[in-house]
Amino acid sequence: MQGTWERWEFLNPSMLPFGYNETNASEYFPLTREEALTRWYKRQDKSYEPAIMDITKVLKWEQIPADISKVEESIVNEILICEVSWRPYKITKQELEFYRKHKLPLPKKHPDIRHLERLNKRPWRELYVRNCDKCGVEMLSVYPQDSDLKVYCEVCYNREVY
Ligand SMILES: [Zn+2]
Known about the structure:
- The chain has helices at 25-28, 33-38, 93-101, 111-121, 154-161; strands at residues 80-81, 88-89, 128-131, 138-141.
- By secondary structure, the protein is of the alpha+beta class.
- A hairpin with a 6-residue loop joins strand 3 (128-131) and strand 4.
- Bound molecules: zinc ion (ZN).
């Protein structure tokens, strides 16, 4: 490797274990299938969605108690349908334990929809010159000056928090 490119360069993208469309990079820098393959990125086209072999296994939300403590363990063997995308998904045992521990209701949306909603809540990767809302010093922030959020400079933030 010392005499060839491998020692000094990133690994060839074709050696990566995941498809480009499975990574967070594809959310910020989306590529079409052809563009990704041209750059030697792998692509994951296999669906991980549960197959609905038996339609009677699909639960309606009216059948599921809203109170997580009343949800039975057998829910991990059932298939749920997303109320937004109508895609099937399952709840894992670990998820169920997490929701029970934190007294949270079962999610009614497919994991991809939940991920997309979280992604849309993040500020875009762009910096704005704005003023601190406490002392007025000029600074960079992902929130523009006309944003509804209060943004403090590092000094004011640290003074407020500590
Ligand atoms: Zn300040």
